UniProtKB/TrEMBL annotation:
Pfam families: Enc34_ssDNA-bd. Gene3D superfamilies: Nucleic acid-binding proteins. Residues 173-198 are annotated as: Disordered. InterPro entries: Enc34_ssDNA-bd, NA-bd_OB-fold. SUPFAM superfamilies: Nucleic acid-binding proteins. Residues 179-198 have a biased composition (Acidic residues). This is DUF2815 family protein.
Length: 198
């Protein structure tokens, strides 16, 4: 069975997160609460796209036992074309995207160097503002077959997230620096140790 899991598991290259709910589960359309994020994969990242296609194909093979011995003609797959499906969203231009979710909270961390064996060391991220829609990460995914109310296909399960880079907020939110960097604050009156309320 380990080989099946390996065949359906993917570690992405650097991707961008969108619609990110990874610290608190959310219910979509009244369904079960899940941790989730959309993952934007650059179309130039052929290796990640190749690995996803292979994992989806492996999940389809596993699904045959659920689907009466054959892959359905209208089998839904998670990978979608951002240029076609989100033509008005600049962040999705030049990307494929998929939605990944899990009932269990994903591991969320950042790399902090190497250990004595040359393996990457990680620090857990607990600050909920550090992983957001617009940041960049590498993500561990597992693809699995589903059969729900006549819908048959392959979905992406969310395992772990390693943040690798900050990015512009998606969804209209701006950073503190963007909002206030051009504002004039009279900092001379703000002595660091002064209690300005007294």
């Amino acid at each position: 069975m380990a080989t099946d899991n390996q065949a359906t598991k993917v570690i992405t290259g650097k991707v961008r997160l969108s619609y990110t709910h990874v610290f608190e589960p959310q219910s979509v359309d009244g369904g079960d609460e899940k941790y989730s994020t959309a993952i934007l994969i650059p179309k130039t990242d052929k290796e990640t796209l190749r690995k996803i296609k292979a994992a989806v194909d492996a999940a389809k093979e596993l699904g045959k036992s659920k689907w009466g011995g054959k892959i359905p003609a209208n089998c839904k797959t998670p990978l979608r074309d951002g240029d076609e499906e989100r033509p008005d969203d600049e962040a999705y231009a030049g990307h494929y995207f998929l939605n990944a979710s899990s009932k269990n909270k994903p591991g969320i961390a950042k790399p902090i160097g190497k250990d004595s064996n040359g393996k990457t060391k990680f620090a857990e991220i607990t600050d909920t503002t550090e992983v957001y829609s617009g940041c960049y990460a590498k993500v561990s995914l597992n693809f699995y077959p589903f059969d729900a109310k006549g819908n048959r296909g392959v979905a992406a399960g969310l395992n772990n997230i390693v943040k690798v880079q900050d990015g512009d907020f998606l969804g209209g939110r701006t950073s503190l620096n963007e909002d206030f960097s051009d504002e004039d604050f009279d900092t001379d009156d703000m002595g660091e140790d002064e209690d300005f309320l007294s």
